Amino acid sequence: MAAVDIAMLADPAQLWAVEFSAAHPEFGPVDEVEEFAARLGETELPSADDERLRLLGALEKLASAVAAAQVRAAAAYDDSARARRLAKGQPDDRARRAVTSEIAGALHVSPHKAGRLLGVARCLVDELPQTLAALERGETTHWRATLVVRETALLSKESRAIVDEQLAPRLGLLGDGAVEREARRIAQRLEPGLAWKQAQKATVQRRVTIRPAPDCMTVVTAHLPVAEGVAVFAALSQAADSAAVDPDDHRSRGQVMADTLASRVLGTSQAANVPVEVQLVISDQALTGACDEPAHVHGYGPIPAPLARALADPPDQHVVRQVRRLWSSPETGELVQMEARSRQFPAGLRRFIVARDQYCRTPWCDAPIRQIDHVLPYADGGPTSAANGQGLCQWCNLAKGRMAP
């Protein structure tokens, strides 16, 4: 790697410029690489299809090389920045959080995602050098390198080196699924006891999660032990097979499986016949139909106004829905001001701020809100009010105030 001031490593684009300049001296000094990037975006595409395919391959290799440069940059910055903070007496946990937040700001991502990226970078640089080399050469992608890291996360350093040695030469021939399976297979062969222990631990951590999906749908994921998971899917498949022989049932196989899952979990023949509480953030004009400004459902996100009105006033009178309406201004979209005299945000004001902010207020962090904090600290005279309150995820609230070197 070309020599570079450590401060430059905070900017992955600058490090990529150094690496690209070293590999392609025909493009001149580092300062000219940005000009090259601009020219790349303006360059006329080849007219021949075979040249277009070659360009696609070359750009993919370039993307892998850039990812490798970011990996080295993140690890190098982590080394230097944490060492600087530790030398000044900052506890290691605070230093780690601060550095992660700084990297998140540089990459315009959430601290949680920056932490994952930094963890992958540390592993590739420190323990999987051959996998990192394959990424640098464009033989694999950053995601496939991440899969190798994930599937070997708990192995000893010696076992991880064996996986690196055996798998890295084949990465250029394997797709995402094959990389994941091969890394897991080698890891389980090397340390079967650890694999069994992790399977038992994962069983204890079984859970159900939900996340938004496009078109006002949701994805509900159940993390189940393999036997139960396979059995659940088999039962839903059997229900779909049974429905297929009914000439009056025109639902698709996927629809039958989804409906069966919902009805069996909810204990009803019709999933819609279940009492639901929906917390809507909606303007009065949208609710009355005077405008179609999208509403917001807490825990999901924006929904179209017609759907919001249907939730608030369902046509099926057998459906019982408790609607908690939180009114917003049609001009600004902001909710009504509330204020409290105490330092702690009272429950009503907390719910109000969560509904207003919806996600963590830290730039580029879209994690769920876990804590309410004062924008201007209470000790500095900041009021406990809606205007001075902000919703933060746990990470960002802990990292707040620790960013200064």
Summary tags:
single chain, 405 residues, alpha+beta, 4 domains, 10 strands, DUF222, HNH_nuc
Gap from first CA to last CA: 27 Å
- Quantity of strands, as a count: 10
Low-confidence stretches: 1-16, 26-30, 271-276, 317-325, 336-341
Q: Order of SSEs, N→C?
A: HHHHHHHHHHEEHHEHEEHEEHEEEH
Q: Roughly what is the average pLDDT, rounded to an integer?
A: 78
The fraction of residues assigned to DSSP E strands is 5-15%
Give the radius of gyration. Answer: 26 Å
- Major beta sheet, strand line-up: 5-4-3-6
Number of helices in the DSSP assignment: 16
Q: Structural class, from secondary structure content?
A: alpha+beta
Domains counted in the coordinates: how many? 4
Quick one: overall form? Answer: globular
What is the percent of helical residues? 40-55%
The largest β sheet comes out as: 4 strands, mixed
Family: Belongs to the Rv1128c/1148c/1588c/1702c/1945/3466 family.
Domain HNH nuclease: 348-398
Protein name: DUF222 domain-containing protein
Organism: Spongisporangium articulatum
